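User: two proteins, same treatment. go.

Assistant:
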Amino acid sequence: MTWTSRDLPSFAGRTVVVTGGNSGIGWHTAAALGRAGASVTLACRNPVAGEEAAAAMRAAGAGEVRAARLDLADLGSVKDFADAWTDPLDVLVNNAGVMTPPRYRQTADGFELQLGTNHLGHFALTGRLLPRLLEAPAPRVVTVSSIAHFRGNESVLAGNPRDGYRPERAYANSKLANLLFAFELQRQADRHGAALVSNAAHPGVSATNLVTSEQGLGSIPGVSRLAPLVLRLVLQSAAAGAEPTLHAVAEGGPASCTGPQWLRESRGPVGPARLSRYARDEVLARQLWDLSIELTGVEPTWL
């Protein structure tokens, strides 16, 4: 039997944070969990868009959904969001991201935009929220990666430097970093005897606003206007792309990765995803973990 979001169990009484939950895959992830009874917070860069998305989800039966500002490209914003979170947190979905800006760009803290947003921002957020996660009875962190991770390699440790910047390679390294982080987080939890489950998912190839975002390809004139029309014709929907994430939230095992199963994992029913040899490299994962602590100043603590 194929698993779908219709098989989600009740999430009544559980709290969930979805980064980038105001659009695309994050929107459908948050809405489905809200309909399943969870109290959902959309952590997004644009609070107006977040409030509009939360209202739309509530109107569609999602129940308790709210929005809060979080800019993953600004470690100060990450700290503010985490400091304001005072209750136990059951599920953190590290979903937000930026894809292939054509020219080199930096975060507020001077990191290359894709690595800084997709990985370092989520690393810092997870680390700062870890005490709240460990207060929950069965905490879970799901990090959304991409099949693009296959093009990443050990150069992820160089931090996507300005010299020789290549948008696709930088994106691939940021998505490889997502997997290395998710699996090392599980190893760290196991080492400290914590009940936390950390796993990953990837959406296949879906029609989302990653392409049209002004931080990515949408900065090219004409892309933001034409891309949505083309994407809807050739790619699976964002709702379909959210299915692997929802499976990882509901049923994915520790250090697992869920993805579509058809057409080189670009679409189709959910199941175990393939991983590159770099994604399975425990030494590389620990090196990236230590580097991420050094760059962000955030060291996850397991009290």
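Protein 2:
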Amino acid sequence: MQLFLYEGHTDFVFLNLLAQYGLVLSFFIILILLLLISRLIAVSNMMKDSFGKLLTIGGIALITIELIYNIGMNFGYLPLAGMPLPFISYGLMPTLIHAIVIGVVLSAYRQKDLQFNIHS
């Protein structure tokens, strides 16, 4: 059976992968993204610098909201919007933005032991 999905490579990539490869790959993708989010939460808890912690929490929020909204949108629970699946959807800008977010989090994690005192 051939299934036609409008924008099956961008916004509806999760539904396309579910239709083509089944539940195993879909659960694997969700598991990998949840492991990424849990690792980002662990990194956020290790930070001493409040600005780095806020940057990390912002990255967590961005990836989590996009993951939940994309899956909810694919199954019809949320209205349709141009919300990409993090690191999976096709396109330059979503991939570039997610790479920049992870780069900022890694940069903040690299300096996690530094504590800046502005008022001294």
